[in-house]
Structures are given as C-alpha cells and as structure tokens.
Amino acid sequence: MDPKDRILVGIDTPDYERAETLVRSVTGRVGGIKIGKEFFTAQGPDRVRQLIGEQKLFLDLKFHDIPNTVAGALRSSLRMRPAIVNIHASGGRAMMTAAAQAAAEEAAKLGVAKPLVIGVTVLTSLDDADLAAVGQRGPASEQVERLAALTQECGLDGVVCSPREIVALRKLCGPDFKLVVPGIRPVWAATGDQKRIMTPADAVAAGADYIVIARPIVAASDPAAAADRVVEELEAL
Ligand SMILES: O=C(O)c1cc(=O)[nH]c(=O)n1[C@@H]1O[C@H](COP(=O)(O)O)[C@@H](O)[C@H]1O
C-alpha cells in the first residue's frame, strides 16, 4: 500500500465549513477521512455524504447497544457509503455477530461493497489504572487481546487498537486481520488526552494497516503541511 493511503484523518469538528476546509486541504495527501460523533451529531448523514464526496470514509460512530439496535444502526449507516465502520467489541459476541451480518446483508441489498466492520477494543485514552477504576482487572493489553480474539471469532474484519498492541495482535490474529490504530502522535505534536501512543512511523513499522490522526493534523496551523510531514515520515521507513 502507498504509505499515504494508510493515513485516515479525523475531522473532529461540529462545523460544516471548517470540516470542508480541512477535507479540501488533505484531499490527495492522505488515504481517507474519519468522521466521528462530533461532526455526525451536529450535521447528520446527508452532510457526511456531501462532505466526503469521493473520499474514502471511515465512519467512526462506535456503536454499543443491544444486538438488534446495533444491527439496525449498521444498516442505516450504510447509506453514508462508509468503507470502514466500527462498533465496541465490549458489546459482546451476539452484538458483534449481528453487526457483521447486518452489514453484509445491507451491502448486498444496496449493491455496494461491504464496509470493513471493526471492533474497538480498549480506547487509547485509557490506561491500566482507568480500567481498574471501572472494575476491569489485569493490564489493558490483556483485555485488548481478549477482545480482538472475540472480534475475529465473530467474523469482523479487524479491530481498533492502540499502537502498543499492534505487534501482539498481528501475531494473535494473523496478517489479514485489519489493525486500525489511533493514539498516533508525531514527535512534534502534543499528547492531549491520549495515553497509549506511538509515532506514525513506529506504528506502521509495527504493522498497523491504517493510522488514525486528528489533532496533530487538523489543529495544526497548516493541516496540509502537517499531513505531508506525516507522509514523509512514513516514506522514510
Ligand atoms: O475509533 C477510533 O477512531 C478511536 C478509538 C480509540 O481508541 N481512540 C481514539 O482516539 N479514536 C479516535 O481517533 C481520533 C484520534 O484523535 P487525535 O487524538 O486528535 O489524533 C479521535 O477522533 C478518536 O475518536
């Protein structure tokens, strides 16, 4: 894969004009656009479609609910023509299985390619102490491996994980299981609320299929230059 195609830029803003400016500034420089709850909740599905145009869309709505509701949400989300969608792996076996089935059925019904359905393991903003505080004993890495194995068993295409877990998951889940990796921080960017982080080049060298980057690019004074800087880092590998 061309190194730039591994980069998905998170357009985390509620504002349409701002989002449009950002998308325009990174178009052709990166592999795709991630739209999450901030933009979707403010603007809705039609504006997502309008914003994205021909770009590759990672629709990051992280569904987590009872199986019937998540299956319905998955079906509805396909109208936005995402290439990648995600759900919380901690929603469990029945929820993930229903989601995978709903995505396949709805894609066939609409005559479109089935999006990659990806399970979010442990959010990159959580560390071992955060997990302990919600009753999750054992290191984050173990919970990530447990959820990745379950995700694969349920027939999903891959997981969202932190860069710190890439090597272990590649070994556990094999070469074809997609690893979509946020928590990416170039050395020149602020960490913010992320905890389990790595640089773009280190994450790709470790085996990430896609790296998800928002603030280091979209909050930069020159987003296009920031995107180019990340691409250069990957090309130097
Ligand atoms: O599913 C995601 O994309 C996601 C999962 C996760 O564990 N951590 C995480 O940061 N994300 C998303 O990835 C993006 C990272 O943004 P920055 O920290 O600004 O680069 C945000 O839009 C998050 O919602």
From TrEMBL:
The gene is pyrF. This is Orotidine 5'-phosphate decarboxylase. It comes from Denitrobaculum tricleocarpae. The active site is at 60 (for ompdecase activity), 62 (for ompdecase activity), 62 (proton donor), 65 (for ompdecase activity). One of its GO terms (cellular component) is cytosol. Pfam families: OMPdecase. GO terms for molecular function: orotidine-5'-phosphate decarboxylase activity. GO terms for biological process: 'de novo' pyrimidine nucleobase biosynthetic process; 'de novo' UMP biosynthetic process. Pathway: Pyrimidine metabolism; UMP biosynthesis via de novo pathway; UMP from orotate: step 2/2. The keyword Flavoprotein does not apply. Residues 6-230 form the Orotidine 5'-phosphate decarboxylase domain. Substrate binds at residues 12, 34, 60-69, 124, 185, 194, 214-215. InterPro entries: Aldolase_TIM, OMPdecase, OMPdecase_AS, OMPdecase_bac, OMPdeCOase_dom, RibuloseP-bd_barrel. Its EC number is 4.1.1.23. It catalyses: orotidine 5'-phosphate + H(+) = UMP + CO2. It comes from the Bacteria. HAMAP family: OMPdecase_type1_B. Catalyzes the decarboxylation of orotidine 5'-monophosphate (OMP) to uridine 5'-monophosphate (UMP). Belongs to the OMP decarboxylase family. Type 1 subfamily. The keyword Hydrolase does not apply. Keywords: Decarboxylase, Lyase, Pyrimidine biosynthesis. Homodimer.
